[in-house]
Specification:
Strand content: under 5%
Low-confidence stretches: 207-223
Number of helices: 15
Largest sheet: 2 strands, antiparallel
Strand order of the largest sheet: 1-2
Structural class: mainly alpha
Helix content: 55-70%
């Protein structure tokens, strides 16, 4: 949790038990609150949205964020009255943050030029994104790389599979984004998909795996456990779960894809006995609840469940 910059765990010990609270990452919590605020505003409950933000800000000043304060001032309809005591402290915070963000302008301009260049130097892009994140950049500051990195994720090889080198390069950019990637549902999902693809591609291209598969001793994709590759699968699960949590409940298309990807991840975990077939099918069922016509890759359907998804499967 320290490496991920989460708040410290909180322990409560009693004679009969102990309890531990693992606080969420600040940026994820802020994103979650903002999603609830947007939902309330869409329903016309602006007063309730204001109360939600104010209660959240009152609990911990270290959790103040530009996005929530800006939304609060907008909802209070007093953005033009600098003397209003209710927003004076918020305006002062935003002004201070604005001053701190001035040095980011040059880096953002360099990153924008990098995104527009035809010759893609991945190491340069990684350095720029890393510097921006170190300067406390938000997702908006690095959002210009989204189209570029998504394009890399979409590249295919001659067999129609994700291109290994492109996935590796995309992964480097995602890694440079760090915790910022957790604040955007589509980026968190794509990062999870990238990690999953790298796991599958590296498992399939492993020389020992190929030899075993050829001799029929290892007939299933991903059945050979690779301890060095498993963290990719575990992290992919974490990122897609984050994407599910911050995706709007009305966005059924993306929720279906996210649950399908989680099913794919569990199918690979199941192949190395680190998950169960029920967990795989539960994910696919949830995906079909959001989109009854979603196609599921037959390669990632456990043999015993293939008839159940035959109508919706694809190679």
């Amino acid at each position: 949790m320290k490496e991920n910059k989460n708040p410290n765990p909180q322990f409560d010990f009693c004679p009969a038990y102990f309890r531990v609270r693992l606080p969420g990452h600040p940026k994820y919590i802020v994103q979650s609150i903002r999603g609830r605020v947007d939902y309330l505003c869409a329903k016309g409950n602006e007063a309730e949205a204001v109360k939600l933000i104010e209660d959240f800000l009152a609990k911990d000043s270290s959790m103040w964020s530009e996005t929530l304060l800006t939304k609060l001032i907008e909802l209070l309809h007093v953005e033009d009255d600098e003397n209003d005591p209710k927003v004076a402290q918020y305006q002062a915070f935003l002004s201070e943050r604005k001053q701190k963000r001035i040095p980011l302008k040059g880096l953002k301009e360099q990153l924008a030029k990098w995104c527009e260049s035809k010759t893609l130097n991945i190491s340069t892009g990684v350095k720029l994104v890393t510097k921006l994140v170190e300067e406390d950049a938000t997702f908006d500051d690095v959002s210009c790389v989204k189209r570029k990195v998504f394009g890399l994720c979409g590249l295919k090889d001659a067999q129609g599979r994700p291109q290994l080198e492109a996935q590796q390069n995309a992964h480097k950019i995602f890694e440079a984004m760090g915790e910022v990637a957790l604040t955007d549902a589509s980026v968190s999902f794509q990062f999870a998909s990238c990690k999953f693809n790298l796991y599958v591609l590296n498992t399939q291209t492993d020389p020992e795996f190929k030899q075993r598969k050829a001799s029929s001793r290892e007939p299933k994709v991903g059945t050979r456990e690779r301890r060095d590759l498993f963290p990719l699968l575990r992290k992919a699960e974490d990122y897609v779960k984050t994407a599910i949590q911050i995706t709007s409940k009305d966005d059924k298309h993306h929720l279906a894809m996210e649950w399908r990807l989680l099913g794919y991840i569990h199918s690979q975990r199941c192949a190395i006995q680190r998950s169960t077939e029920k967990q795989v099918t539960d994910c696919y069922d949830k995906a079909r609840r959001y989109d009854p016509n979603i196609r599921i890759n037959s390669l990632f359907i456990p043999a015993g469940s293939r008839p159940r998804y035959a109508a919706n499967s694809r190679r």
